[in-house]
Write a structure and sequence with these properties.
With 632 residues, this protein is mostly beta strands. Helix content is 5%, strand content 49%. The protein has a 19-stranded parallel beta sheet that branches. Strands 2, 5, 7, 8, 11 and 13 form a six-stranded antiparallel beta sheet that branches. Strands 1, 6, 9, 10 and 12 form a five-stranded antiparallel beta sheet that branches. It is globular, with a radius of gyration of 29 Å.
Length: 632
Amino acid sequence: MKYFFLVMLSLLFITLNVSAQEIIIQENETGFCTIDGKVDIGSTSVTGWTGIGFADGDAGVGKSMSWQISVPAEGNYVFSWRFAVSGGDTTWRNAKFVVDGNIAKDTIYFPYTGTSWSNWKMSSPVEINLTAGSHKIRIEAHSIRGLANIDYLKVDGAGVEKAECMPSYVLNVKSNNDEWGSVSYSPVQNYYDKGTLVTIKAKAKPGYFFQSWTGEPSSADTVFTFAVTGNVDVVARFLPDGTKMDEDITGYATVQDDNGTPYLVTGGSLGETVEAFTLEDLQNYLGSSKPYIVKFSGELVGTGTIKITSDKTLIGTGDKAYLKGIELSINQARNVIIRNIAVSHVTPQDAVEINGKSKNIVIDHCEFFSDREHGVDYYDGLLDIKNESSFITISWCNFHDHEKTSLISSNDESPADSVIRVTYHHNYFHNLGSRLPSIRFGKAHVFNNYYKNFGSAINSRMGACVRVEKNYFEGGGKAVFMDYSATVGSVELIDNYFGTSTYSSEPSCSLNVPYSYENFLDETNTLPDIITKGVLVGVKNNFDVPYSYKLFNYPNPFNPSTKICFSLAKDSPVTLKIYNVIGQEVATLVNSFYKAGEYEVEWNASRLAGGIYFYRIIAGDFSETKKTILLK
């Protein structure tokens, strides 16, 4: 009897123990599978997390995290997440709850947890019935802000265990403009197992061309097959016929991966050209969702930030285009050109910030400065790049009179910044303290720059690789070094003049530059003369006139009107005429003398029959004919 009682008591204890079982899945453990974003390991700026760190997801609707569990028998299981939602935006980061590819609950609520990201809370528990076996658990963001920061997933239920991941991913394929081209893909599924081969296809409509697939993965092939290794978000980039990139742009901004897949940096050239006169004008145009070329002249003194979104060109015109105390912030943006602008004395922010996975950015012929009278820490950076921003070119800029000039990746805890790719060429760095640049994790190509009177220049840190090629160093301290981080970086030194500056050549690396730049490369001994004459000094207008002739129209096809855009490289008489398919002239849009510049005229064809038409421009020695389609 006593033996029977002990057996029953043991069984009861086992039953109670199983029924009360709970697991917690941390980021480095079995059961944590995928994240659109990064695992922030050992963060010091955010505290209160457990395990090795926390999951920090990307911004965007549909961004996800996933886990894998197994259960021994059918039953109800309870899920909850330890999370934080903070920052200046109090938007809740709610999510869809998906189990094995099926929606288990439309909304899991992740409310705002306070002003500090270190305020963690548990989500309300969600009870779900599961069958015996292994299950894929996934949350997908409802908000454009993405998911909450997740410390861990907790699951309560009888016999629940962490399981080896069998990742499944989502595929998002679309066109940048459905009127310019279409996309298709196969196989079509809600979710894809790792390794699934997918073929995506792009087809341009008349009047447009396919430029590339942008996203992950990227390719210039209209038909592209790849194996799924993560969530896929690709966009077919179509552009109007005749769209070209300024031939004076080179460097990492012109590609989108280490294989050299091209990216045409067009800035706001497919939108209107507008003039900005006030800070509010600049904020409205540059923060718009529409493409714009924004021309600015004069001087604005103040505080605050100008946020620059995708597909923008900011160009200084006239004798002066100067922002004093006002930050330029490029955040979560792509395809941006900033030219001929001077920015100075910004505090406490950076003069220019490139942040939030921004890509394909050109900063050209600009001037950045402050003073060296307020101490090392009074001002922040002149031009800082961080948070996985990549494929950036900084060229022909004048950096002077500052302490901490250009920082790439803001701390040693950001290994995700290994994707950063930056080119610095033909810049003038003078009377500066340090960071010319200082780079962590990523890769940089630094060629044909002139350094004069500096404390320290190029610092390669945390595994970064920097190709330092044909630069001229004069009157400085440390030209190239590896310091101030737990792990050093590496360099590749090619044909530099160091003068009396010290430099380190080890550890060494080899950077395979994925773009052509040989035509831009000058001999080292010519740089002091070339660069001091070519960089922006005193805010001169070097770029108000286009580099070449251009002709295109949009939309195309159209009904009933379209805009015909043309650029003139020099002053000339211009005629712009429309012809039908048998060569008859049906309209004269322009017949006058024009100065060099960019122009746009509207053609209303409401009285003409649908079909193919040709528009022809003659401007001095230049002539070109393009096709357009009127739909009726």
